Amino acid sequence: MSHPPSQPQLTPQLCFNTTALRDFLRLSRSTIDDSITQNLNALMTPASAGFDPSSTSARQNRPAGKRLANPASCRAFKDNVLFPSWQSRADILNYCAGVATSEDPDDPDSMLRLVESARDRERVVDERLDPYSGRFFPREARTEMLASLIRNERSVENIIRARTWSLVMERCGDDNQGWQEAVDRWRTAREGPR
């Protein structure tokens, strides 16, 4: 069974290094969510009842989705592999969202944006001569680009979790709740009584 990659240290540099951030998210998703069918198949014990010779005398058409995994194995998989993986990705996305909404004193392009902004305020535009001269596309701050990336990654995360959860429910079948409620319940149980 797959195990999620270890969570990198949460620093603003991780967030602004979009390649490293996306690589962690991609690796975590591919290890757990993209291979969810294989992970759930690993929970099955194919010969738990022993071999029955009469089972080969006639073809049995059983839908693959109807086989349920051992409830204890499913619970252990969700509690020890799936939810911790989701939590580590949520922690990184939440941390980077906080970085994206805060001031960025180390932005290397901040002076360049200020100079461009001042230059554009001084510019005289005659749109009759050049109708496109009135358009100005300022550079986006690092925090704005990061905020956009985080929004996109959260959308991707919601889609992936919904798909993964539907497969988990098909194979484990023990909960009739959405993935958000299940993760919230897992978090509450993990934190213990207050």
- The number of helices is 7
Query: Level of helix content?
Result: 55-70%
Sheet with the most strands, sense and barrel status: none
For the termini, the CA-CA separation is 33 Å
> Which class do the helix and strand fractions yield?
mainly alpha
Gyration radius, rounded: 25 Å
- Give the overall shape: elongated
Q: H/E element string?
A: HHHHHHH
Round the mean pLDDT to the nearest integer and report it: 78
Described by its quaternary structure, the protein is single chain
Counting DSSP E segments of at least 2 residues, the number of strands comes to 0
Strand content range: under 5%
Outline the low-pLDDT stretches. Answer: none
Would you kindly provide a brief summary of this structure?
The chain is an all-alpha fold and 194 residues long. Helix content is 60%, strand content 0%.
